Structures are given as C-alpha cells and as structure tokens.
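Quick one: structure tokens for this chain, please?
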Amino acid sequence: MCLSADAIAAYEWLVSFLLCESSNKLREELSRGKDNFTARNDSQVYYCRTLSIAFIEVRSAMGGGSGGGLGMGPPLPQGSTLEGSTQICGQSP
C-alpha cells in the first residue's frame, strides 16, 4: 500500500482518536465497577476493533512490509503521532 503523506497523517490522526476513545471507554467500564477482564472485553466492541485495523493499515503503509516481524514496517520514529497518543489523551504512558 502506497499512501501520500496527507493520507498517512489522516490515518495517524484516526489511530490517535480511536486510541483515546478506546481508553475512555475502558476507564468508563472500570468506573462502573467491572473487573479488568470484563471491562476490557466490553470496551472492545466500541473502538478497539476499528483501532487495530487502522493501526495495521497505517503501519503497513509507512513501512511497505519491508521491515521485520510481521511485515509491519520499521519501528515508529521517535516523536511520531502514534508514539505520543497516550499524551494526546491526557494520560501518562
């Protein structure tokens, strides 16, 4: 997959947004008194599936499958949007 810089930036924004929403949903489930397993299980229905698909798509576009591991491309560059997603959500890493 070969995407323009604008398309990759849009994917990075989407991944950051979905990561924040997924994290918020998990915290909401935990605050309702659910145990960790049930809270994670219930929060996956909302954004986690879409998050995982978007993350895989942007990583394959960034690396073109030329990296190690699962063909997901090279490691994320220091200071990239995806690496700082927890700070965007206002959480500590």
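The chain is about 65% helix and 0% strand.
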